[in-house]
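User: structure tokens for this one?
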Amino acid sequence: MLSTARILPAVVSMALVHGLFSEVKAAPPSVNYLNPAGGQVGQKVEVSVNKTLGTAPVSVWTSAPGLTITIPEKPAKGKEKQFTVQIDAAAKPGLYWLRFHNAEGASEIRPFLVGTLPEQAETEPNDDLEHAHKCELPGVTINGVLAKSGDVDIYQVKLKRGQTLIASQTANEQLGSPMDGLLQILNHRGTVLEQMEDTLWFDPRIVFTAPEDGTYYVRTFAFPADPNSTIQFAGAASYIYRLTLTTGPFVDHSLPLAWHSAAAAPVALEGWNLPDDLKTLLPAMTDSKTQALLSHPQLGNLLTIPLSKTPVILETKESQAEKGQLLTLPATVTGKIAERKEIDSYRFAAKKGDKLTFKVDTHMLGYPLDAYIKLFDAKGKLLKEVDDPRRNYYDAQLDYGIPADGEYRLEVTDRFQYGGFRYVYLLSIQPTEADFSLQTTEEQYTLTAGDKPLEIEVTVNRQSPRFNDDIEISVDGLPAGVTCEPVVSKLKEKTEKSVKLKLEAKADVVFQGPLEIKGVSLKDKTQVHTPTAVIKGISPKRNTARPKPDLELPYLWLTIKKK
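Assistant:
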């Protein structure tokens, strides 16, 4: 999804800490997590790292503009791990990635979230109703941590009868916290009124409407994301979370679920507490150019939605009729399985020999639908049905060659016949196109100048149907004195599934910066991809029945240092 993202430089401030590290061996930055892990648009945030910022001078790269990061020239005693983030007033809300680097190397990439609501830091003790952290509504985002085993955090809010409170926690999904969080709503007696565990993967959200005026409490605790033999609440310094509590506007999904930028049309918002002037919103292109952003200063959250190659239409009542909703191919449709046992039906004309790809995106977009599709011919004969096309992938996809001219019908439903407000999906029926993707074994590499070459293995995934073109893989943006010959991946040769790039640097070269690898089809040079890599230390194993794939990003890094 992010394979073509553009890597942008950050606005950074250098730190020169004289004398402080004079007797300490030079070391690269080492960062497992940030605390707090985010801030509000237009505000300055004091942030700490858990390990070390490394030997000065230290710089910071960010994945998009909007953050100015300053590491103190002479940090006070006890604040050597702290820095400040000034979030620009014009910064786009959303997820930013940070990488710290110095002459010795670079840290792994780490997340920082920018939101729209006022922010607070959790105050301890807050593990019982008497000491609950008091929050002012209509909205606040709290930066907290379940710091030790058995830790419980409680927050107090006052609600009027009929007010709808959204309590939404971000931890495992975007911050990589190794926690499976739970949220509860309690009344003034401590009675649990509502409880939620998993809404967006392991991160919970509760939508609660107050039955009467009064004081209510939001309680959070967690279990390990990777289950173990313990039977108590879990906690550690890495169990960092952001908890949004709001009675203001909050969006769950858009209709349609994707945006065709050429149409330049607003989308409808579906959520809670949305005023009339916020029920539609015009998306803005993200810096990655692969997604569109839905954000507004009044919204307590934001959405990113994928871009579509074709206009996106909405499901109509005809999808519930016997014949089904008529589509003209290629087509992209947003639908919803609104009720249990609901089946949405679509019909279309196709010709013999047409090769079509039927794809339903929902699970990877963060919604609970387990898509199940069936393809029928005009006589009602079942041609193919698909649940999960491959391991750890729960969105249905089918590549199919049409056997004869005629009308065909596709059914979409939930595998377990569930349905509801959040059971939305994005269906696309497109001509099948061969494509490829690239992946590297590491997200960052170090080359010693004047020493032996650095070998970078790039895995080539020729996607089904198999991509047959030769692919030239090369490196852009290398400094003077550094060389790397392009390598061509060819079908039925050793380079078909992987290639090795060799980087060499002259003895006087020093460099820190993004590693810009790209693969280009030699037959169709518009087919260009950049590799992704699994980000270490932020992808819990999730040894569960339905694990989520590891986080992969296209932000590779290269360090070249002297012997």
